From TrEMBL:
GO terms for molecular function: hydrolase activity. Residues 1-28 form the signal peptide. The lineage of its organism: Bacteria, Bacillati, Actinomycetota, Actinomycetes, Kitasatosporales. This is Metal-dependent hydrolase. Residues 41-278 form the Endonuclease/exonuclease/phosphatase domain. Pfam families: Exo_endo_phos. InterPro entries: Endo/exonu/phosph_ase_sf, Endo/exonuclease/phosphatase, GPI-anchor_lipid_remodeler.
Length: 290
């Protein structure tokens, strides 16, 4: 009996220590240490219409689900905008049907049309969105220089629609920016927009800044001079294929770009058929723990 008691006095602390180690291991994430895997995508959803100009949100839900992405940046998102999207809130509906958190950044936010005016009528909005399987911690809608499509004789001026959603990827903060740059052949507005985006993304932080992604439709090819300043600080997840138009792609105008602290493992375009007039870009990344 004295032997058993002596063993118990020595073994019990050892078992306790082993238990603490096992508990810590069980609660730590499997990717603890170097990096966390993350699949991201960008997709211009064309206000819910396909390349055939038919509004079909079910078709787009199937396309988005097939990407199996953790984070998705969306462009041309209608929220109660008009008859073309059946006055529906596409941001909220896509998030709900995909089981993802939603952040929406309107570019335009207009009063309801007179025929629809009533005390509870929602505003007509159009913009960009971020869908995320991971919790969204903060949302900001920054301004860019824009040439409005909603008025006569527009001039370049600051307007919202540069969305920043800070998400917690398994405990690692990540700033996800969604953008849609000017479509006109003259690059002057895009040049100003790139400068505006860089000013936002490169602003100092009170503490260490999170890594960030830039997801969007840039309406310019990778070698366009107006995009050159982006590539001085960001890396392009090149899918190796054009993204527009979806049915016979000729131009690569849709992008996943990453900052320092994010490793690009691969990138591709996804075969989503005619669900939109753009093809999505999907990238496999690894997010460094900082």
């Amino acid at each position: 009996m004295r032997i058993h008691l002596a063993l118990r006095r020595h073994v019990a602390p050892l078992l306790l220590a082993i238990g603490l180690v096992l508990t810590a291991s069980a609660t730590a994430h499997p990717a603890t240490g170097r990096s966390v895997p993350l699949r991201v995508a960008t997709y211009n959803v064309h206000a819910g219409a396909g390349a055939d100009e038919v509004f079909d949100l079910d078709r787009q839900v199937r396309a988005l689900r097939s990407l199996d992405a953790d984070v998705i940046g969306l462009q041309e998102v209608d929220v109660h905008w008009g008859a073309r999207s059946e006055w529906r809130d596409l941001a909220r509906e896509l998030g709900h049907r995909l089981g993802m958190h939603v952040a929406f950044g309107p570019i335009y936010s207009l009063a309801p049309e007179p025929a629809a005016s009533r005390p509870t009528a929602p505003r007509r909005e159009f913009g960009v969105a971020v869908l995320s399987r991971h919790p969204v911690l903060r949302v900001r809608n920054h301004e860019l220089t824009r040439l409005s499509t909603q008025g006569e004789n527009p001039r370049p001026e600051p307007a919202p629609g540069f969305l920043q959603a800070t998400v917690a990827v398994r405990g690692v903060p990540l700033d996800v920016y969604a953008t849609h740059l000017d479509y006109r052949p003259d690059p002057a507005v895009r040049t100003a927009q790139v400068a505006d985006m860089l000013q936002v993304m490169n602003r100092p932080c009170p503490r260490r800044c999170p890594a960030h992604l830039l997801l969007g439709d840039f309406n310019a090819q990778p070698d366009a001079p107006e995009l050159a300043p982006l590539w001085a600080t960001l890396r392009d997840a090149d899918p190796g294929a054009p993204t527009f138009p979806a049915t016979a792609p000729e131009s690569r105008i849709d992008y996943v770009a990453v900052s320092a602290g994010v490793e690009i493992r691969s990138a591709r375009t996804a075969p989503t058929g005619s669900a939109s007039d753009h093809l999505p870009v999907v990238a496999e990344l690894r997010l460094g723990r900082r």
